[in-house]
Write a structure and sequence with these properties.
single chain; alpha+beta; Beta-Lactamase; Alpha-Beta Plaits; five-stranded antiparallel beta sheet; 18 strands
Length: about 425
């Protein structure tokens, strides 16, 4: 069976239910098919006589002027080649319907050059309502909603990004659409490779993508967490649907909890637990690679008498002041910890015995010359005893190291206090 072009076109229109319109730009007449009037709930008779004024009357005022401006641009040979926009039109029941209008300009050479704008109308109300609902949901959520698409060749784009990208990153979804790398360009350089590796792993396994990373926006660093579920199409394209949220508060809390877990609450220096962890690490590294490190054990002489004479508040202040005195003298690479009531340890990586002795003596002299104030306003002085151990070359256990260091400290106390005893191995 042979069908003419007109028959084929009519079959397509009837089969798809396309709503067609033909606007004579010179006469103002408007011709539509039966589906067009059905779309708005009318009959031809109810809309007769059908002219461009009928369309104007049914079109939302806010959309009408913009649509006519686009037609003018098309007629004047502007930037547009086709008419394409979504407008609202009044249904017979009084509701506004979202209509996607498409058309193109034609000139009838047989009718004296009459100009026609011919096209289709498609009711996209349900789609627009869904988009509006999604936008409202996206606004109510605490992060950026997005869909990220990656092809088998590694190229990618964002098929959807919610408006909140402006609040978090300072650029619009449209900018992301034009340049998807905008999202990756703000990721902290130290985290970018890990983020890309996690995406690649999720692409291969189709397991949920989760990543914590930092972004830099206007000089400010912010922690973000991305969570998305991937799905793969038969052609290998993978799409992730997910959300990115700010986790600064969580990261701050984690940092505070970590700090509390390794810090002595009274003095602010590290605690015994952290010192032992660091000692284990240095002892293991020392055993594998050699090198040298020193350990200083310090104890405030007759500290119990401070608490007995002046009270625990004064004793606590003494410990805080003493910790500050040591902190001012250690290197950034040294580890200072309060390991007991008035006991402190200093771990000095890559330090010779001479350097450790010099530091311990500096601390001893500084404390000896420092004055503490009693509740009655009088001053009093304190001294320390210290033991030093240094281990170059040979492997050593933490238990043996602490034992030797403590023995040197006890010798300093037995020999009269206010002195330093060095273990020479």
């Amino acid at each position: 069976m042979h069908l003419s072009t007109e028959d084929r076109l009519q079959a397509i229109l009837d089969g798809t239910g396309a709503c067609t319109w033909e606007w004579n730009l010179d006469s103002g007449s408007l011709e539509v098919n039966a589906q067009w009037v059905d779309m708005l709930g009318y009959t031809h008779a109810e809309l007769a006589p059908l002219t461009i004024h009928t369309w104007e009357r049914l079109t939302h005022p806010q959309d009408r002027e913009a649509a006519l401006a686009e037609v003018d641009d098309l007629l004047l040979g502007g930037s547009r080649e086709r008419y394409d926009r979504v407008i609202r039109m009044r249904h017979k029941d009084g509701s506004w319907r979202f209509i996607h209008a498409r058309g193109m300009l034609l000139t009838d050479s047989e009718e004296g050059g009459e100009r026609w704008l011919i096209g289709t109308h498609l009711d996209v109300t349900d789609q627009k309502r869904t988009e509006h609902q999604l936008a409202q949901i996206a606004e109510s959520l605490p992060g950026i909603i997005y869909s990220f698409v990656m092809r088998p060749d590694g190229s990618y784009f964002f098929s959807y990004v919610s408006r909140k990208t402006e609040d978090f990153y300072g650029f619009t979804p449209g900018e992301v659409d034009r340049n998807p790398d905008r999202i990756f360009d703000i990721i902290h350089p130290d985290d970018l490779d890990a983020v890309k590796a996690s995406i690649a792993a999720s692409y291969a396994s189709l397991e949920q993508w989760t990543s914590d990373y930092r972004v830099q926006v206007n000089g400010k660093i912010t922690w973000m967490r991305g969570i998305a579920q991937p799905e793969r199409e038969p052609d290998g394209v993978v799409t992730w649907h997910g959300m990115v949220i700010n986790i600064d508060d969580q990261k701050f809390l984690e940092a505070e909890l970590k700090k509390l877990s390794v810090t002595d609450e009274l003095t602010g220096v590290y605690n015994r637990r952290y010192m032992l962890e660091r000692l284990e690490g240095y002892a293991a590294e020392h055993g594998r690679y050699g090198g040298t490190f020193s350990l200083i054990s310090i104890d405030i002489d007759y500290f119990k008498s401070v608490n007995d004479t002046y009270g625990h508040l004064v004793g606590d202040q003494v410990l805080r002041d003493f910790a500050a005195l040591i902190s001012q003298r250690v290197r950034k690479t040294d580890v200072l910890a309060r390991t007991g009531g008035e006991e402190f340890l200093i771990l000095m990586p890559q330090s010779s015995l001479e350097n450790a002795t010099r530091l311990a003596e500096d601390v001893r002299v500084a404390l000896e010359q420092h004055s503490f104030q009693a509740p009655d306003g009088t001053d009093f002085q304190l001294t320390i005893s210290a033991g030093i151990v240094n281990r170059p070359g040979d492997a050593v256990s933490v238990e043996d190291l602490l034992s030797v260091c403590d023995e040197s400290l006890y010798r300093a106390k037995r020999e009269g206090r206010n002195r330093i005893v060095v273990d020479h191995g």
